[in-house]
Every structure is written in C-alpha cells, then in structure tokens.
Amino acid sequence: MDDKIVVGLDIGSTKICAVAGRMVRHKDHATLEVLGVGRVESEGVAKGAVVNINRTVEAINRAIEEAGNQSDIDIGAVNVGFSGKDIEARKQNGNITRSSPGDEVTSLDIDHLLGDMYRNPVSPGKEIVHVLPMDFTVDNEPGVEDPVGRNGVKLGAEFQIITAPVAAAINIRKCLERASGGLQREQILLSPLASGMAVLTEDEKRAGVALVDIGGGTTDIAIYHRNVLRFVSVLPWAGRSLTDDIEVGCKVLPNQAEILKTKFGTADPTDYKFNEVVSVPGLVNRPPKDVLLKNVSIIIEERLKELAALVQAEIVRAGYEHKLLGGIVLTGGTASTPGIERVFNRVTGMDIRIGYPDQLERNARADLVSDPAYATALGLVWAGFKQVDERISFFSDPGRVVVEEPPRVTAPTPKPAPKEKPKEPPKRGLFGAIRDFLTGDNYNPDSDRYE
Question: Which CDD domains match (predicted)?
Fold first, then answer.
C-alpha cells in the first residue's frame, strides 16, 4: 500500500466533489483505495467556469471538510480539474536542433521542446494550460511515438495546444487560496483527461475511442487513438440543458424540473404509459400541477438526440469517424440517464458504453463513487500516481503569479488527536439548514406531490 494520499477536487457546474485516496499495489496491477468523499451542490459555477467566487469557496470548504473528516486527514493540497465553454484546442508543430547530436534523444530534449511550445503566443486573454504531443519526428522521420533512445539531430512533434481564459484560471486559483486554510494545487488538469484516467482502458485508447463527459454545464470530448490524445472539444450543452427544457416544456419551476429529471427521467418514452403522471406543487394558493412522465422522457430523448448529433459532428470534424474501434464512452452525471446508450447508438451508429470508474479497492466508499458522476474526481486522484502521458511531464500552472512564494507543506497530514481540536465544532448555520431543506433531500417521497 502506498502511504501517499492524493485529493482530487472536481469543481463542476452542478456539484463540487472532493475525493481522497491512495494507491494499493497488487502483483500485476494497482487499485485506488477511496478514503473520503465530499460532495456539495455547486452554486457559483456556470458552464464549467467559476462565476461567483464566494459561493464556490463555501462549497469547496464543505466538500474538503467532509472528505477530510472521513479520511481523518488535514487537506492542504489538491489536484483540481477545470473545464469551460471557452476551452480551445489547436494543433501546432514545433522542433528543436539538439546541442549534442551524437547522443540519443533524452527526456530533457523533450522537456526543452515542450518549454518552447509553452512560450508560443496565444490570443489576448488566453493562456496555455496543456501542451500534449501526438507524434514525434526525429531527423524528419515521422510517426515516432516515443523518441527517447533514438539518434538524431532534429527533434520535432505535432502538439495539441490547449488554452483557457486567463480570468477563469485566476478564479480557480483565488477559490483555492480563499478556502479554509488555503489550498495549494499539486496539478491542474483538463476534466476530460482526468475522467479518461478513471474510466478508459489502455486497449480502448490504443484502438481509438471518444470519451464524452456529459456534466452539468458542458459536454467535454476527448478522442484517443494509438494511445495518444488526438482531439479535445467542449460543448456548452449538457445536463442542465435537459433541466431547462423540462422547465419550459412542462411549465414547472427550475427545482421541480431538476427533480423530474433525476427521479423520473429516462431517454426512452416507452418506459411510461400515456396516463402516468406526477403531481408537482403549485405556486402559493394554487393547486398542484400534473405532469405526464412520458412527456418528460420525450423531452429528454430529443435533447440527447441533439447532443449526440453534436458529438458526432465533432468526431467527424476531427477526422476520426471511421477510426474509433472503441466507439464512444459516456461518463459524467448525465451518463446515468436510463436509455442514453440507445439514443447515442441510434444517432452515431457507434458502439456505446457507460464509463463507470473501476480499479477500486472494494469498500463502502468505493461503492458510492462507482458512478460516472465521480469519474473526474477519481481521475484527479489517479493523476497523483501516474502521468496522463508517460512520455512527458507537461503540467503548467494556470493563474499563477510571478512573485515567488515561500514553500509550504501541502501534503495531506493526519488529523491531530481529538483533544487538540477546537472545542467548538464548525456550525452549519441557519442558511445552510434552509438550503438543505430546499434541495428536496428532506422531501417525503410518499407524499401526494411527488409520486
């Protein structure tokens, strides 16, 4: 068992999730032992980007506290995921002439080439967050997967350059700094890359696969082929789009639409008879409203058809429509919608499977996170033990400042003995209690309003 503990923090549009875990080494493989999980409703994030720092900080504090209490550690550093509708990716070539041409190519040469790519100019208001090599060239010989150990003078590669708005990266940094005790970032990683670490197999990535992470605010697409990331795209439609459609189509309030989606939603209208209804509360002094469940399913199915068509268009645009033997792997919270596989298969004509996190040490918390909604958070934990691309060490630090800061101890540490803890425990407060009540978690499902 590895003593190192890593915490993944997924800052999403609908939830903020913290997972603490450590790697357990077996004879021929490794698994992840989940030590603690914290999940809180997200109120300060829209379309994958932080729009309200104070609300996001509050949610981060609660998620980190819950994960820390369960795992009995004080959390000082996290691997954090990011996404957003303004994420962009482009392909670009780069090359260097080696200073010692008589020697084999080394990892230092690759680092030199990567460093040059990070210094490329980008659009105003953007910054480079990842530089991901695809295929290398050595002395103009193309198609080299790993150049280390080859002889040559000129080293080049085609890169995937991923950029994000500077303001979005700075907002994430501010949220972590303002969290209780201050959180440092060990790594920051594009969310679909993290999700891929949790749900994709090496065979799928080599054969060709499209990971489609359908979150609350965005749908993130990452295409792998020959074990290399080839394409990244972010669509600004996802689970919240389903909620909005139900709100408009069924003429209900936003929170009622969310309940209809999560408790009764399916992408197959045949699951319900024509006369099956659910009664939702009316406004003040107004009677409850009956909603046909078949209508809810029709709305979900139509929106998912549209989303599947958009995903297919991105795969075609990338040039991989006939190269993905592994088909499409759906993950993210919306991937749990019953019938979603059928919809995507009918629209794209490709093999579809739901990406459930695996390679977990079986315990009660592992059962909790064996859900597509936790793919990104678990992938961020895995990122503390293995590289997304073993050929490079590529992580940049978006939102950083130039001023040097003194180093601090950031690794998770065991909590002090109970006698050393403050006598007065943190209080949730009146507004926290009200918020919990309004989420619907305390609503009696046996009442005549939601049946």
Answer: ASKHA_NBD_FtsA
Backbone region of residue 94 per phi and psi (left: phi > 0; alpha: psi in -120 to 50; beta: other values): beta
Kindly provide the b/e burial profile for residues 169-199, where b requires at least 16 CB atoms within 10 angstroms of the residue's own CB: bbbbbebbebbeeebbbbbbbbbbbbbbbbb
Phi and psi angles of residue 246, each rounded to the nearest 5 degrees, phi first: -65, -40
Distance CA 330, CA 337 (A): 11
> How far from 435 is each of 217, 395, 402, CA to CA, in Å?
21, 37, 39
Give 398-430 as a DSSP string.
Answer: TT--SS-------S-EEPPPGGGS-SSPPP-HH
Looking at residue 261, the DSSP 8-state letter turns out to be H
This prediction's pTM = 0.85
Delineate the domains of the chain, giving CATH numbers in brackets.
88-165 (3.30.1490.110)
Alpha carbon distance 232, 253 (integer Å): 35
Kindly report the backbone phi and psi dihedral angles of residue 16, in degrees, each rounded to the nearest multiple of 5, phi listed first.
-120, 125
Q: What CA–CA distances, in Å, run from 200 to 134, 231, 390, 406, 421? A: 18, 16, 16, 38, 41
Pairwise CA distance, residues 164 & 167, whole Å: 9
pLDDT tens, per residue, the chain with 451 residues:
568 999 999 999 999 999 999 999 988 889 999 999 999 999 899 988 999 999 999 999 999 999 999 999 999 999 999 898 899 999 999 999 988 777 899 988 998 999 899 998 998 999 999 999 999 999 989 989 899 999 999 999 999 999 999 999 899 999 999 998 889 988 899 999 999 999 999 999 999 999 999 999 999 999 999 999 999 999 999 999 999 999 999 999 999 999 999 999 999 999 999 899 999 998 888 899 999 999 999 999 999 999 999 999 999 999 999 999 999 999 999 999 999 999 999 999 999 999 999 899 988 899 999 999 999 999 999 999 988 887 776 545 444 433 333 333 345 666 665 555 444 544 444 334 433 433 444 444 444 444 4
Which stretches within 269-374 are classed as H helix?
293-318, 340-348, 364-369
159: left (phi over 0), alpha (psi -120 to 50) or beta: beta
